[in-house]
Amino acid sequence: MGTDIERYIEGIRTGDRAVLGRAITLVESDRADDRAPAQALLRAVLPLTGGAHRIGISGVPGVGKSTFIDRFGCRLVDAGHRVAVLAVDPSSSRTRGSILGDKTRMEELSQRDTAFIRPSPSAGAAGGVARKTRESILICEAAGYDVVLVETVGVGQSETLVADMVDVFLVLMLTGAGDELQGIKRGILELADIVAVNKADGANVKAARATRNELESALRLFRPPGHEPWHPRVVTCSAASGAGLEEIWHLIAEHHQTLQQSGDLQQRRNQQRLRWMWSLVDDAVMAAVRVHPAVAAGLEQLESDVLGGRTTATAAAETILEAMEIER
Amino acid sequence: MGTDIERYIEGIRTGDRAVLGRAITLVESDRADDRAPAQALLRAVLPLTGGAHRIGISGVPGVGKSTFIDRFGCRLVDAGHRVAVLAVDPSSSRTRGSILGDKTRMEELSQRDTAFIRPSPSAGAAGGVARKTRESILICEAAGYDVVLVETVGVGQSETLVADMVDVFLVLMLTGAGDELQGIKRGILELADIVAVNKADGANVKAARATRNELESALRLFRPPGHEPWHPRVVTCSAASGAGLEEIWHLIAEHHQTLQQSGDLQQRRNQQRLRWMWSLVDDAVMAAVRVHPAVAAGLEQLESDVLGGRTTATAAAETILEAMEIER
């Protein structure tokens, strides 16, 4: 194992894409045997991490995420950046796979030498998709990628998961009819640092700008300036024509600089790490509670009694805690 | 204790306000000796609970909450309702008390026989202010109060706590200068079922209506219709003149009816109870983790290492879980 890890480390340091792919496969593995080597690898490359812009990208199916990432990614590559594209799709499975991070949908970017595209890991045991992606970000950074895009499709809680592992969260939107925006998911605008109204081309330009203005007003109400180190920005763009992509990169750079200068960037990453640690502990501990011998047998009935209002929440909680001999 | 509980139950059934106050004091008590009697009382009156409109009311200091509750409460009392006013103020302490639920600020309502006003319990151990208030709601319902208002001042996470214990959440707001609304707290508009722009009187009426329109547009964007059983409504009102208070009650009644007919009201309450149970279990279990002998000694250093990026979150989580012999 020692020699294997050495080979992984060497390949990562030199930016060998094949080794990078295998390292991420190791980190994504659900096999119990792979966990110790994966953690040893992460430990070894940890000092090399942290050097990328971690950018989350979300939007409903049809908004043009793949085209956006393709064109945006190429611009960055052509400007000298090394760009990695990861994806979080909790519905991804080993057999079904995922359309996210699908190279065939990012035709040009997948042909660039200094781009690395990886489909979403499958949801397995042991922390699931979020854990695997967080660790893959670290591996990509260690391999010298200075931009890591994490794509998510907006299924379930995936935006919240991604927003908590990146520095900046970009939401792509479409123009809707009248006041309504298409497919906007509740809570997503709370997470956005930058909102880009896509497909602002041809006859749609005017509508896109109107949508932009509405979103800006709404964000000013919902997220008033002064409360956060960065107030969310709204722009229009056309991934197809390339319009607005430059501006988006400038905003990302401005966001990065603003937060870095105030110390907020490091603080944000630190707190993300700490929250993630406790999240992993909490998940494992609460899973253990549910299967605890003294708890498991009566749990279904207890939950049913709570839902049915036949017992108070407090009494039910005390039943569980007493069974585990824990003080409330 | 048997006879005492019987006396409490009897006093609650007959709507005896003095007994009601003592029962709530018992439920709010942090003393270990009081916990069994309190839970016995709750168990005994549980079948009598559930019969009130549970209404959360939030807004920044200065928005006019006390005047609003005073006038709104009086209208309900005069229309034949029995109105209880509770408060959640996590900053309340046994010595300092709280201005919330302060009878002197609800002059008229405090003089009505069929109104019951209770200041916020102090944050103590054992589940804190939220637990005490949830249980007090049950006691008030058992005593025949058919409207329970739970006031919160918007400190920390208190709105989220209150929103998760009521049927409907009302946010009072002020008109601001230009596009900006005064003191709007991030996330609060996600929780609101009804928003009332207060102080819509005299020269301020026009500005209040403009604010109403802006909020409505923003809510349509952020919380598009169709996603929830009830889409949030925005009105103007003047607690001082009484304008709009009738409309607010109609909206509350409409909300209640809509959710009751669809089964969502019961579902909402059931899920609140279940979430609350697991929240209590989680709090106690995670507190036990932190003081676990095998964990406590090294925890500070471990958290410091995670914050400082010297170890990965996964490795740190595994350290804790291994120490407690729990599988990840």
Largest interface: A-B, 68 and 68 residues
> What is the helix fraction of residues of chain A, given as a range?
40-55%
Which sequence of SSEs, written as H and E, runs from N to C of chain A? HHHEHEEHEHEHEHEHHHH
Question: Which class of secondary structure composition applies to the elements of chain A?
Answer: alpha/beta
Task: Tell me which oligomeric state these chains represent.
Answer: homodimer
Q: Give the neighbour order of strands across the main sheet of chain A.
A: 3-2-4-1-5-6-7
Question: What composes the largest sheet of chain A?
Answer: 7 strands, parallel
Beta fraction of the residues of chain A?
5-15%
Q: Using only CA atoms, what is the Rg of chain A?
A: 22 Å
Uncertain parts of chain A: none
- Please work out how many helical segments of chain A DSSP would assign: 12
Mean pLDDT of chain A: 89
Which term fits the overall shape of chain A? globular
- Report the strand count of chain A: 7
- Could you tell me how far the N terminus lies from the C terminus of chain A, measured between alpha carbons in angstroms? 45 Å
What does this structure look like?
2 copies of one chain form a homodimer. Helix content of chain A is 51%, strand content 11%. The first copy, chain A, has helices at residues 2-13, 17-28, 32-45, 65-78, 128-142, 158-163, 188-191, 205-222, 245-262, 264-291, 293-307, 313-323, and strands at 53-58, 83-88, 115-117, 147-152, 168-173, 194-197, 233-236. In chain A, α2 runs antiparallel to α5 (128-142). Chain A has a 7-stranded parallel β-sheet, with helices on both faces. By secondary structure, chain A is of the alpha/beta class. In chain A, α8 links the parallel β6 (194-197) and β7. At the A-B interface, α3, α5, α8, α10 and α11 of A face α3, α5, α8, α10 and α11 of B.
